[in-house]
Amino acid sequence: MKFKVPIFDVKNLSFSVRGQKILSHISLEIFNGEYVAIIGPNGGGKTTLIRMLLGLETPTNGEIKIFGKKIKDFKQWQKIGYVPQRASHVDANFPATVLDIVNMGRVSQRSIFARTNNEDKEAVHDAMLKMDILDLKDKMVGTLSGGQRQRVMIARALASKPEILILDEPNTGVDMLSQKNFYALLANLNKEEKITIVFITHDIGVIADDIGRLFTINQKAVICNNPKEALSCEEMSELYGIDAHLVHNHKHVH
């Protein structure tokens, strides 16, 4: 049997703020090439978990390893692309072009004051090509639609040539057609570009068919290795405190 080292290896993770427990005894692994959805209600701890995976919050208890290294020893953060919540919410007067924004994704590769080189330009061009926004490069980002801005922010994350892409509720404020196109782009990045995808949402109605595994987070974690089965399991109803089958229009299987 061949053992693979997970990209993220989380063991017995807990997090509390001022005595209030946000996450409790979370253990999970995410492997290279996976397409994982993390779902759960608002306030369930999804974003807190992601912030700890990115080293932005320190767990109260437990351990995180990234690519086999303890998080405090991990230095290759350019391997992880991150699109935070509300990243695509930009002021209409924000003075930056699409090219400016995507270029920001290369800062992790060099000093912030260093001039862009050919490698930077090639990486930025490649990221914009993948997100189909080359024709928008000179447009001011504040003038774009929500779906277009979403793709710009993903291109910025891709500019560092990451091995894993983490997206925290990127569909907020994006119309249904843009969401459909967005899932097609993610599936392509996962299958064709071999980028590991971790996608966070509180909306169980937007789970894409391409997802390989489903993590449900509501203080604790339930890991479902077959999302299609998960959508008809009792944990979903318990997680949301509603009949999740009605929300997702799936029938009970007896």
Structure notes:
The chain has 254 residues and is of the alpha/beta class. The chain has a domain of 166 residues: P-loop containing nucleotide triphosphate hydrolases (Rossmann fold). 28% of the residues lie in helices and 24% in strands. It is built from eight helices and ten strands. A six-stranded mixed beta sheet has the order 6-7-8-3-9-10, with helices on both faces. Strands 2-1-4-5 form a four-stranded antiparallel beta sheet, covered by helices on one side. A hairpin with a 2-residue loop joins strand 1 and strand 2. Helix 3 packs across helix 4. The longest helix has 16 residues. It starts with 7 loop residues before the first strand and ends in a 6-residue tail after the last helix.
